[in-house]
Amino acid sequence: MTANEQEIDVRRYWSAIAARWWLPVLGLIAGAAIAYAVSLGGADVWRGNALVYLGQPVTPSGAQVQSLSTNAATAGEIAGSAAAQRRVEREVGMSRGELNGRVSVAAVKGNVSRLGQNPLVRVRVEGDSRKVAPAATALAREVVKRVSGYADAKIAVLEEAVEEGDAELARLDAQLESAPADASAGFLVLRRGELFDQLVTHKQNLALAQEVERARIVEEAVARKVTAQSRRNQVVVGAFLGLLLGLAAALLWDSALALRRR
Question: What is the pTM of this model?
Fold first, then answer.
C-alpha cells in the first residue's frame, strides 16, 4: 500500500468517526455508567494489618548476628504456612482453610538493607468478617515466636543473672550494716562496687535484648472495611472500553447499512 493510499484510508476513517461522533461519546458515557453501576454492587472486604518488628540479635561483643529474624522473607514463609494458619483459624474461630490465599506479608517501605537495617513487616489478612484483625495479630505472634529463639534464650540468661545479682547485693548490704570498721568491711565495699557494676551491665544488656534484639508486635491489627476493587479504576476501564466500542461502531456504520440494504 502506498503512502497516498494510507493517507486516503486514514482520512476515510477519520471522516466516518467525525460524521458519527456521537457514537464514541455515547459509548464512553454508557461504559462509564455501566462500570459505576457494577462497582456499586461490588462486595466489600475486611482487612487487618499487624505491624511487626523482626528484631536484631547481636553477640556479647555487639556484632550483628545473622538469624531467622534478619531475613524479611522468613516472616512471609511463617505466616503463609498451612500449619500456622490452621492454628490461627482455630484460635480466632475461623473455618478450616478460610485464611488460605488471604494472607500477605511485606516489608514496610523505607528500609535500606545495605545499611543492615532490619525491616518492619506488615502482616495483612483479608476476609469477609472482622475476624481478620485477631487473625492478623495471631499470625504476627506466630512470626514473633518463631524468630525470637536466640533473643529469648539470651533474655532468660540475663534475667537469671540480674536476679542473682540483686540477691547478692542485698546480702552484701546486710553484711555491711553489721560489719565492724576493719579490713573485712573494706573488702565488702570493694565487692559491692564490682557487683554493682556487673549488675548495671547485665541490666543494660537485658534492656537491649528485650527492646532491640527480640522481635515484637509494634501495632496490633484493627479490622477495616475496604472496597474489593477501586471504583475509580472500574469507571475508567468501563469508559475506555465503551469508547473503543463507539469508535468501532462509527467505523462500521456504513458497512452495516450497506449489508442491510442488500
Answer: 0.67
